[in-house]
Amino acid sequence: VHYLLLSAPWSVLCYYAEELQLRLPLQALPNQTSIWSARLLGRLGIHNVMAQEVPNLPLDHYTCQFKVNKLQWFLGSDKQDTFFSTTQRHQILYEILATTQYGHSKEREVGVDWLLSENVFSAAFPLHDGPFKLPLEEAAPSSLNQRQILFQYWANWRKWYKYQPLDHIRKYFGEKVAFYFAWLGFYTGWLLPAAVVGTLVFVAGIFLMFNDVPAQEICESEEQYRMCPLCKSCPYWQLSSICTTFKAGRLFDHGGTIFFSMFMSLWAVMFLEHWKRMNASLAHRWDCSDFEDIEERPRPQFTATAPMTIINPITGAEEPYFPKRSRHQRILAGSMVVIMMIAIVVMFVVSVILYRVVVAILLASSGYFRFVASASRIASVTGSVVNLFFILILSKIYISLAHFLTKWEMHRTQTKYEDAFIFKVFVFQFVNFYSSPFYVAFFKGKFVGYPGNYVNFLGVRNEECSPGGCLIELAQELLVIMVGKQIINNMQEVVIPKLKCWWQKHRFDSSKKVAKEGESVQAEKAPWEQNYQLLVFEGLFDEYLEMVMQFGFITIFVAACPLAPLFALLNNWVEIRLDAQKLVCDYRRPVAERAQGIGIWFHILEVIAHLAVISNAFLIAFTSDFLPRTYYKHIYDSSLRGYVNFSLAHAPWDFVQQNNTTCRYRAFRDPDGTFSSTYWQLLAIRLAFIIAFEHVVFFIARLIELLVPDIPQSVEIKVKRERYLAKEALAENKV
């Protein structure tokens, strides 16, 4: 392997700094990093254990766009070696490499990315600032390199409760990476109150479980309620047999759940509103609040494969062009493929439903008492695990397909390419991950018919909810998918990079041994050799996707599982340090990319937050027992005595005659099988509750949006001050 170390002379750096509209300092400021929790603890006089002193804190500056002819007005312009930061030098060099033509003009062979894809070069990367491991002898913190500082104060497991050094991350990895970690840290901080409230609601459920009158009635009923079979070959069963399951269901299904659903809906709105403010502050501090993608160059792959050229009306330069009509046709064709893949996911969901039905029938007719008694529960748990494996396998296949489709659609810029790819994968993953919980929450047990007149699907009787109710099944489904996925992902993030790094080093060392014909490998490798052995950084897409899907789980279905925010919080504490370690230790240094925020992901989070309000309203109204219990309290008995008998219907007379035995089933129906007046009254109450819940939550959410300004006042003042200074410094008459 041969290496080329590139650097750019001062004149080239100046030319491209102006071309790329880089912002450079006019005047230094003390770093005014301000974290709300630090301010709050300071006011209360409580020692802040999360704060830490990180050496070499980057200064804050008033900045403006670089102009060569106004060079003397910029701070530090007399020191050519340090005037441009390392990341700015990387950006300039990458710009030159990505836009330089290496082939014939008519073939439009442009850019280092294309050369990498053609295997002309095996890699192109900026160098890390040195080793990440600390020197053996005790060194002064200020003498550490940037990578060692990040490793010691950020990627260190002992710092799991400390604030992240965001300014150091931005200085070393660029704004795009820094915004991801800023958002992840902010989200994790906001999960803390949600986790505390969720845990309190769960603890309240434990106390309510022991004092629940209907649960006591079921446990003491013995052989009073003989229930109809749950499937074709299932036996009759006693309601008292589900005593434990029914009590467990009360952990999630009580009045506190209503409060928590509303709390989480408003929490999501507050979180997004405050993130907007945080985003505005960071964008200003990091000089990218007016960074727009207008100047973004065409993707090298687009340049190389575009079929024609056109004169750019703004610059007058000839540039590659792909007809809009052809692109729209390709996007339409790609959408058909996405719809087809979604249909495949739905088929898998149906197959899991059929699997549950068949397993329940087989276990119920097996003759083993233990299997017969818990046939429905075993089928449900194993079905959740099978569903998780289907989800993970389909995700891998689809992401490869989405990459191919997005490339084929020929998007001109990297931003448009990423937005199209993210949208495709998110839509698919949304259906993939949420279809099964949606089915359990809103469809399972709703269209089953009644004894003697059951509804069939594909020749199999429709699934009923397990004896304990659908809400406990939904909680179990969520815990299996959410916690199972988190454990698998974290194991992958720990094991796979380490294995890849080991393999890369092994391959590199063995090739060097061959090259040196038996000579021993030199003890100390050159920095570029050490960097070459590291893994290629493939972007933050997977990390964002994992967190956004998690956000969906803790908001859309929170009524079923108040502990979801707690599991998310525990996962994210691990996730921050895992991602930090990968970037600092296992990956080559990425080229610093500028960004104005988290991009399209913010709009996806807003959609999820709105969907969560609707989902929770339907979950409480139709899946939970809250409204039927409230109805019974007000109409019949406030102590809920007799509620169990009230919620069970008698099997129709013709079914009783046919089977020579009577039984009960969960429904509000008359003895002839038609819906009772109670059913229709409850339906009206349920629909009224949905409308009231949505209107109240959306009204409060809109009020929060109006009361919380998107840009903090302090940032607005700084922006005005900066513009004033820029005018003063760069005014023609001053020059």
UniProtKB/TrEMBL annotation:
Keywords linked to the UniProt accession: Cell membrane, Glycoprotein, Membrane, Transmembrane, Transmembrane helix
Residue ranges occupied by any Anoctamin dimerisation domain in the UniProt entry: 1-166
Keyword Cytoplasm: no
Occurrences of domain Anoctamin transmembrane (ranges): 169-722
A Gene Ontology cellular-component term: plasma membrane
Compartment(s) where it occurs, according to its Swiss-Prot or TrEMBL record: Cell membrane; Membrane
A Pfam family matched in the record: Anoct_dimer
Chief localisation class: membrane
Transmembrane segments: 177-210, 254-272, 331-358, 378-399, 420-442, 547-570, 598-622, 679-701
One Gene Ontology biological process: calcium activated phospholipid scrambling
Annotated family: Belongs to the anoctamin family.
Listed name of the protein: Anoctamin
Gene name tied to this protein: Ano7
